Request: fold
Amino acid sequence: MSVAETIEPLPPLVADAMVLIHFAKADRLDVLGTCLSSLSTTRIVAAEVDKYCAEYPSITSISDLEWLAILPQDTLEELLAFERWVQLLGSGEHDLGEASVFAAAEVHELVAITDDRDATRVGSKHGLEIHGTVWLLTRLHQRGKMTLPQICTLVDALRETGMRLPCTGGELPRWAEERRLL
Reply:
């Protein structure tokens, strides 16, 4: 039995717009689709991402991705959670997407994936499990879904799209080891 076989599968995840946008800009949405068993986002995030579809070589609409579940967030519990997160995060366009992701994470017990440090601080303070793209990629590596060189190359490709990540691909092994992600 390999090390990857003894590690628990990833929990169900919900992604914010910036994660999806930058993977799309890097033409690497395939990584999310093939490596994750469960990924969702919200209707609000899907609408936000779709505004930029002309820039993506790989999709015409985020809703076209069969492997990505779009959560409608139309129950009373979901709407009340969304309202609470809007009050905590703000009501700007990007804040609404993050508020919807955090509401989904709270109501459906999902792990939120975002690289927004301020939103992460607020969400963590209020009990959510939140991680960034580098965490996600190191988890895929641990589970044998990607090699270390592949995730290092992907980190550089994402950074080239303007994604703000805490390290370059070359720095990733040391950076991740220091934080016990590898």
The two ends are 19 Å apart (CA to CA).
